[in-house]
Amino acid sequence: MPVIYDSNDGAALLVGGCVLLLLQMCLLGVDPDAGLHAMDLIRRWGYEAESHDVTTRDGYILELHRIPRGRDDDEEWSDSAEPRPAILLMHGLHGSSLNWIMNLPEQSAAFIFADAGYDVWLGNCRGNIYGQRHARIDPASRAFWDFTWEDMADHDVPAIVDYVLNVTGQPSLHYVGHSQGFAIVTAHLAASDERFAGKISEVFGVAPVWTNGHSWGPAVILSHKRPYYEFIVKHFGSTQYHARTTTFLSTMAKYMCVLPGVNYGCGLLLESFGGMPTLQINYTRTSVYLASIPAGTSTKNCVHWAQTCHRGTQARYDYGETRNWEKYGRPSPPSFNLSHIHTPLHLFWSREDWLADDTDIRLFLDQVDPSVIKSAKIIPGFNHFDFIFGTEAGDRVFKHILNRIAEGGTNHVDYVPRRYRTPAEDQALNAVFTHFSSH
Fold it and tell me: Is 384 a catalytic residue?
């Protein structure tokens, strides 16, 4: 006798499944760290935390977070000792200061540097959850969201660096930038601002993005919508990038990604935007990661990155020929002269990273003065997000940064730009990179 499917059975199964899911969510609750403010998350692990507001020259108010000492440091002794060297950590696109403190203390960059004796400052750029205030402009207006990463380079980075040095009394600081965080300091250094360059002891780029013409994966597929978003920005102005969708996804992640099994799916989704899953992230904390990612930016900023991906070179925002003449006095946007950079650079990247692609990084290295490249280390088996969320990032990335600082600028690779290399030298250079990727 044939089995007759009753639609009511399907409805009953759906309702029953939802009830079971709700019961499981009620029993498990949510991860107490998911959705926490950065200050609360720092204190949750027993570290001292401070909040500071910085106002940029164009009026954006950015909230910085500071960890002035390690968890086990005696406060009285620490205050009477020599000032701790300052280190500034800057997040990437759609990120925030939370990116550096979301894992366990022994895995999170901010806590590792604090326990190693550094005065740690966590930066935030305009548009993310800690950068949505302005001295004059309403954040609900389109005028507030009329910015890209070049405005972060022109205004946010110098304002933050000046503030940190003013508070700490230090003459310079160490800068660690993930992804876009590397691009914005690079752009400002390329502007030939010698006064600013003297304030940065050295720059450490982790999964560093400059050009992304060879990037691929879901993020690049989304960039193909560039003409549509360019049209919207040109004729209607910029807005917060998918604000309602971001809020919905963050809320769903907080409650759903804590469930057994679902947490792996959430982790794989996050990793898929930065490369093939490498099983480096802590899947029990995916609800913590995704409750705060994406952290907010402007549509115009995403269009700017899509333009970079499309043309394969880095330049200021392309408004179209007519507007470019008005803004830049030329038909195309001006590019950045990387030969102006004289600050020591240390780069850490992976060939498994789909966003900070190996080819793009080598093209960057070919454009800078070889003498400024102090280390160029390939980390095997990392995708884009493993550099901040990977459980091995502490040992394989952040402790290497501490060693580089301690060595005081010792060269770890003699990089010869491609235009000067013979085929034999090319082969030798690849051998050098392979050597450093295993050390």
Answer: yes
Q: Is the pLDDT of residue 59 over 80?
A: yes
Tally of residues, the chain: 439
Annotated catalytic residue, options 91, 174, 346, 384: 384
pTM: 0.85
- Give 62-106 as a DSSP string: EEEEEE-S-TT--HHHHHHSPPPPEEEEE--TT--GGGGTSS-TT
- Told to judge if 179 belongs to the known catalytic residues of this protein, a careful annotator would answer yes
State yes or no: is 353 an active-site residue: yes
Q: Is the peptide bond before 294 cis (omega within 30 degrees of 0)?
A: yes
pLDDT tens figures, 254-266 = 888 888 888 888 8
What is the pLDDT at residue 229?
53
pLDDT digits (tens, 9 = 90+) for 300-335: 999 998 888 878 788 999 999 999 999 999 999 999
Catalytic residue among 73, 115, 318, 353: 353
**Are 323 and 185 contacting, i.e. CB atoms less than 8 angstroms apart?**
no
Q: What is the distance, to the nearest Å, from the Cα of residue 2 to the centroid of all Cα atoms in its chain?
A: 58
Ramachandran region of residue 127, left (φ > 0), alpha (ψ -120 to 50) or beta? left
DSSP state of 396: I
- Counting DSSP H helices and E strands in the chain, the numbers are 20, 9
- Cβ neighbours of 246 (radius 10 Å): 18
User: Is residue 196 over pLDDT 50?
Assistant: yes
Active-site residue (options: 179, 250, 298, 375): 179
